[in-house]
Write a structure and sequence with these properties.
Elements: H1 2-9, H2 11-53, H3 66-76, H4 78-95, H5 98-116, H6 121-137, H7 139-147
Helix pairs in contact: 1-2, 2-3, 2-6, 3-4, 3-5, 4-5, 5-6
Length: 165
């Protein structure tokens, strides 16, 4: 969602979208944490990711869940979430390819967080499931990456109403 909004409406609108999607993940996990502790936060993390990717009201056609997953990671492992966000931001700024760093950051979270969560089974499952869901959502991007045809972001372009016609 954030990348598409950037391409169509520009940086300001994409920032609003990004913040909203991250907050959705944060709030869902905080609610789960409040209700059922870390297990609740882990379950809420999976649920909000699935809800974002497969929304009932849009015939199960949603986004890829990266920003929402970031929000969940900021509750369950804030330091790791922030580190991966920073690495992704630098990588995207250098390469202009969002999908690579979306996939890499979620796979890295899925591989690293299970070792940091002190054996919490629910959080281990959450970490791995979310990584797999995001990779699955990016399967067409992966094909384009392998064929060298993946879209890049053009940070120099100014979006105006004329560009949208």
């Amino acid at each position: 969602g954030t990348t598409n909004v950037f391409r169509v409406l520009g940086a300001k609108a994409s920032l609003v979208t990004f913040v909203g999607e991250v907050l959705k993940g944060v709030l869902a996990c905080l609610l789960g944490l409040w209700l059922l502790g870390n297990t609740g936060a882990s379950l809420a993390g999976i649920a909000v990711g699935l809800g974002h990717m497969y929304p009932v009201f849009y015939k199960f056609k949603g986004g890829k869940g990266v920003a929402t997953s970031l929000g969940t990671s900021l509750v369950l492992n804030p330091l790791l979430g922030l580190i991966l966000l920073a690495v992704s931001a630098v990588g995207i700024a250098i390469t202009h390819v969002v999908s690579i760093f979306s996939i890499v950051s979620l796979v890295a979270f899925g591989l690293i967080n299970p070792f940091l969560c002190k054996g919490d089974v629910a959080e281990i499952i959450y970490s791995i499931v979310l990584a797999l869901l995001v990779v699955w959502a990016h399967r067409t991007n992966i094909k384009r990456l392998l064929s060298g045809t993946e879209n890049k972001l053009d940070f120099s372009r100014k979006t105006t109403k004329r560009n949208l016609k």
